[in-house]
Amino acid sequence: MIATDNKIVERCFLMNLDRRGDRLRDWMKQLPQPWPFPQPERFAAVDGRHIATPPQWRAGNGAWGCYRSHCLILEKCLLEGIDSYVVFEDDAGFGEDFQERLVEYVSELPADWGLAYLGGQHLYAGKHPPHKVTERVYRPYNVNRTHAFMVRGRDNMKALYRHLHWNDWHTKHHIDHHLGRLAQRRYQALVQGKNVDKESIAVYTPDRWLVGQLPTKSNICGRKWSQTRFFNDAKNADHSDAPFYAVLGPHRAGTSCVAMVMHHLGVHMGNQLGGYETTGGGEAVGLAQLCEKAMRFPAVDPTMSDTQLTQQLKSWIVTRKAEANRDKTVAGAKYPHLCRFVEHLHAGLGDSLRIISVERDIEASIRSLQSRSEKHRGQWFAGTDEQCETLQQSLLEHRDAFIKAHPDVPVFRIEFAELVTYPEEVIKNLIEFLGIEPTDEEISSAIDHVNPDLRKHG
């Protein structure tokens, strides 16, 4: 097994300052057993306090020493013909079942891996969540921190060396920030479909970090923590444990009313809400722009690829989930196109997807959309009577087909006529489905928003 023949990598290095013998002793004492790597070799780290930094360096002497130490280890491997290594900084602390989880992680790493993090912190995960490759392996967008990672392959090592010695460092960036930009290139090319012409290598992370940072005083920033820190994991960097409530219904079906009710109840529906209704459409502007870019009204099929559409919807939603989590609430969204995109939502969100299906007689919704179009001839959101009918039927069919095909996805159905007739009762049940505890004022505001006159087309 890997755990006994130590063939994951050829060499294992521990970066440690000469003046920090205490760290060396403490680090060696806490090594997991059995140890799955070759015997750790202490590498005398560059002490930034004793050397001069280049004039363009603005990140501090400690960060310069860290950067130079990693570069020297890489140079050593290139010069001595070492084709793979793992490096730990002396504040690296190991998680439970380290050896077992490491073997599982390594066994699932794709054959092209060049840089494999064992510990770190996912940056910009709200907008660019790590992309799942296997059950235990993810492709990150950007990883911060360099306390534990593996490097493999001479071509990859040369590419890494070139990247670390380019002079396009951002002001005040540390080595981990610069490495993060390297990871971004492969993610942008393979996940986001962008044309990236700069050199890149395959970078991966585990689903959950294997290595954290010990509660010691940092040699770089001087801060000290009370316990070993494990940062946001790839598995939940996209807040997969937090529900997302998609309000689904064709145009003019009452979804705007429901979305605004949710907004009044404290659900995070987006940072800037717009829409056609004068009382508030409950549509997040950013989501509306994304949806229209993918499928311009009154089209019935997206022009964007399934992969790209799924990723862009997920990125937008993950950011809203993070904001909702910050505000101690849940996230939701409404836009008619989501009926057509519900399979994409499910592909991106998995078990966290929740559906609020707004039910209204389709003929009434068609007539209402046709009436709106007649009032706004020449506007982008107006279609012919035939286009309106085709679009409405398509949205309804896609929503209902998805719900039927996925009985495991939680669905709360709202009959629009019941909402405007018995708003207190319907909203009470909606609150239970949302799993939130709005204030009495928020509940009153939600009830007051419902207008019985909205039944005029029913």
Automatic annotation (TrEMBL):
InterPro entries: Glyco_trans_25, P-loop_NTPase. Pfam families: Glyco_transf_25, Sulfotransfer_3. This is Glycosyltransferase family 25 (LPS biosynthesis protein). Keywords: Transferase. Residues 61-128 form the Glycosyl transferase family domain. One of its GO terms (molecular function) is transferase activity. It comes from the Bacteria.
